[in-house]
Write the structure tokens for this entry.
Amino acid sequence: MRGFNRLAVVAAGAVLVLGAANRPASAEGPGGGLAEAGVLKVGIIPAEDGRAVVRQSKEVMDQISAALNMKTEIFVGSDYNATIEALRSNKVDVALMGAFGYVLATTQAPVEAFAVTVTAKSNSPAYHSIIIARADANDLTSLDSLKGHTFAFVDPSSTSGSLMPKAAMMDSHIVPESDLKKVIYSGGHDASIIAVVEGKVDAASVADRIYAGACDKKAVDCSKLKVIWTSPAIPNDPLFYRKAISDDMKKKIRDAFYGIKNLTFGEMGTVARFDPATDATYDVVRNIAKTLKLDLTKMK
């Protein structure tokens, strides 16, 4: 699940030091295989305001820093490709990314998932893609009713904002490019929600958790909106690390993140905990790609 804002202040490759212990942790070899000995570099992609994502991640990074007894740095990438390249070139050690972004990363860099996010709001390691429309749009009541209407996807690589709803449309014999009146890519879940509220498009696909957050914060008047479709469960954003990191360091990283309880982490909101996960957890996303006939090895 991700859409990206192109940020002027927090740009691709921006690195912020969020936690620092008194001394770096000892590790075998060159820092246990970390990009920089004594520093854990974590990549995050903002779904909304990148500066807010950094600010909202500080408590988690501080606790990880204390648990590992080393500094932590956040790398804010403007999109999946920037963060995947940072992983591939050994500039980032750990990343938090949408499910599709992770699957895409596995085709371009030697990485493996070790945790899935469990949000406090749902207390679940999964979320859903939803399609929203204006509440007064009486002709929009279901997926099948979308034909002939304008529509906003988030980003072509967004699991909940594009891929899952596109696969569902195709299963319902709706070809977005020809059966929808107009298709746009908003660049962000928040932007898609606003586009529907303001009548710029008739409907849009977004992540249910981001929609719920926008409603809770009263960023939009959700009384003017309705949900007309909900997807099957999608695994929440994974945490994953480079395979080249030593086994001992990987265990330390896993234990540090498994120790996080009820802290805000980026756009995920309050994270109740991180549950163990493996690469196979995200096979559901690979199945979506097959439905859409996407060659992940050729996507950039």
